[in-house]
Structure to design on (152 residues):
């Protein structure tokens, strides 16, 4: 009877410590995820231009060393889902991510450093370009050339 009680207590303690361990791990995972997400957000705030997964990864690793590409990809997906980022399709670089909430604008691609930049505003009068009978709903413009840091 005495040993039964001791065993039961031992078992209960084991369960409790396992629970604490699980909780602690969950908290650690959550904290790590938050740190990684914040690092990715910081990258976009600092760069102020559309970025591909590899670029986000490269800049993010300077903030959080342990950041891997799968984590970057997962967090980008979450940030798109949350409406903090949106995907754009670049004709040469494929899928890029940029901050939401910006006015209508276009992009510049530097052929030397292969980076995409944001061009503020738009001068295109789309309804004046389209011939009679065509209803314009949207447009995409990409400019190509050399950026200031490559041209200097
Ligand atoms: Zn450049
Ligand atoms: Zn435009």
């Amino acid at each position: 009877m005495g040993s039964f009680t001791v065993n039961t207590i031992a078992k209960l303690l084991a369960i409790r410590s396992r629970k604490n361990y699980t909780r602690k791990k969950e908290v650690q995972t959550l904290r790590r995820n938050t740190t990684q997400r914040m690092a990715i957000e910081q990258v976009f705030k600092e760069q102020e231009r559309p970025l591909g997964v590899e670029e986000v990864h490269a800049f993010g690793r300077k903030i959080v060393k342990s950041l891997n590409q799968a984590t970057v990809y997962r967090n980008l997906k979450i940030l798109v889902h949350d409406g903090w980022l949106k995907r754009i399709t670049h004709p040469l670089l494929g899928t890029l991510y940029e901050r939401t909430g910006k006015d209508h604008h276009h992009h510049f691609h530097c052929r030397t450093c292969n980076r995409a930049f944001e061009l503020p505003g738009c001068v295109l009068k789309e309804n004046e370009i389209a011939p009679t009978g065509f209803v314009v709903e949207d447009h995409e413009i990409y400019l190509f050339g050399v950026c200031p840091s490559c041209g200097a």
Q: What stands out?
A: The longest strand covers residues 85-90. The domain at 103-152 is CATH 3.30.1490.190 (Dna Ligase; domain 1). The chain is about 50% helix and 15% strand. Helices lie at 2-47, 53-63, 69-81, 126-129, 148-151.
